[in-house]
Amino acid sequence: MQYFIQWQRYRKYWWSSITTTPSLFSINMMQGVESADVNIIANFSCGAQIVETIGINSNDSENNNNNATHSSSLTCAMGLETALLTLLLDGITNATKEEYLKLHNKMAPYKISFALDSIGVHEDEKILSILKELAQLIFHKLSKNEISSWLPNFTLPLQLQIKENLQMGVTYTAILNENTLSNGIFHLLNSNTMLKEQVHVADFDTYAALLCGKD
Question: In sequence order, which residues have a C-beta less than 8 Å from that of residue 203 and are 6 or more positions away?
């Protein structure tokens, strides 16, 4: 029974680890002795949703030597559709004023994408072309490290590029500009905090692996 209780806590923790609202989940009270089902429930404002059912069954029997034996079996049941609905409802509940779903980083389809700050370089197609090549080079390095990344076509203005990435649930956006070609520095935008940090191109593939848990 102790293991059963520990497993309930572990499963609740797992659900909390893939959503943006850790306090969303609760466990209902167990009823029965020989056989019991416990539900993990997502408490949305629109109503409660059972996301997983954990069951335990106890059996007493006799072996060939007429000795009593006790055995228990533990089962977990969940559905893919229910899990997807739970993640989407969580994202809608935490939608930002920019009107995009705020998915947990682990559920983001792409971890990293790119944007080009092309202000002042429109007249110089060569610089713009080199920036695109640099983005493509970084993209291939990330892909080699099995970091899910998105390489856009860079046809939109900077703010719309960033907005597109946010709408796709991208966790980090690498913003390259003309200065990146001279000093190797670019800004990395975190979609959760909307804060930027400076990162050097030479260190980015290693740093990205740390950010995305690929170390």
Answer: none
CA 204, distance to chain mean position in Å, is 20
Identify each DSSP E strand in the chain by its residue range. 25-27, 35-44, 47-62, 68-77, 112-116, 149-150, 172-176, 185-190, 196-200
Q: Is the pTM value of this prediction over 0.70?
A: yes
**In order of start, what are the domains of the chain with their CATH numbers?**
2-93 (no CATH), 108-211 (3.40.50.800)
- Picking from 196, 193, 202, 156, the residue whose alpha carbon sits closest to that of residue 174 is 196
pLDDT in tens, 38-82: 999 999 988 999 999 998 877 666 555 666 666 778 889 999 999
Which tens digit of pLDDT belongs to each residue from 102-154? 778 888 889 999 999 977 665 678 888 999 999 999 999 999 999 999 999 99
Q: How far apart are CA 15 and CA 87, in angstroms?
A: 10
